[in-house]
Each structure stands twice: as structure tokens, then as C-alpha cells.
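FIELD: query
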Amino acid sequence: MSQTTIATDHKTQVIDVTAQCLSLIGNVKNGIAVFHLTHTTAALILCEHDAELREDFVKVADRWLRDLRPFRHAQHTNPNAEAHILSAFAGASLTIPIVNGALALGVWQNILLLEMDGPRQRTITCMTVESA
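FIELD: result
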């Protein structure tokens, strides 16, 4: 198992972590890689890495649950219920095939970290399974 740490610097942020994830697969020629974010207020997704789309993600994260406020979770000490909810919907793990030593991503697919409660240090772990 390998891991990398990503430093986020905004409360809500979208970061392309494709290169960091690729570096975690080691010398596996063909198989699968499971990437897991070990946090409950951020997520990993596959999506196009486009500046305007990143802004749209931040907009959705900031506004989607606004009408449901206030939330009860840690209301006075750490009001981050929205981040937990958004993370649960987006997910913390991705499984991606490895083909000829590279991640088998589509033309517009990138691995993006969605930060929803930053700034923080985020850890991505990777477990690979090599095919015979």
C-alpha cells in the first residue's frame, strides 16, 4: 500500500490529483488500483479538469444544501455537516484499471479531490492488484 498527502488551501476546492495517484501505482503493468481518501469531509471523483467546471463544483458545494440549514452536527464547535453530507454523496474511493503501466482513464477523465472543509492535509491511499 502506498499513500500521498495533499495540502488544500481553501474551504471549498477542486484539485487535480491524477499525477499524484499515478505515482502511487508503482511498477504494476496491468491490474487495478483502488484509491481511497481517508477523510469524511472531502471526496475523490472522476471528472473533466476544467477551470469553469471547478468553479461550478465549488458553487454547488456552497449552495446545494443552503436551504436545509441549520444542521445539528457540531453546530457550535465545528459546523461542517454540509461537508460530511456532500462527501458521502460524492464518495471516498475510486477503482481504476491499470493498462500497460498507466491508469486507464478516458480522454476527459481526471482524478479530482473535492475539498469541502479546508484548508487541511488530505491523505490518499492506494492498493494495487496485479493481474496474472
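FIELD: remark
The two ends are 19 Å apart (CA to CA).
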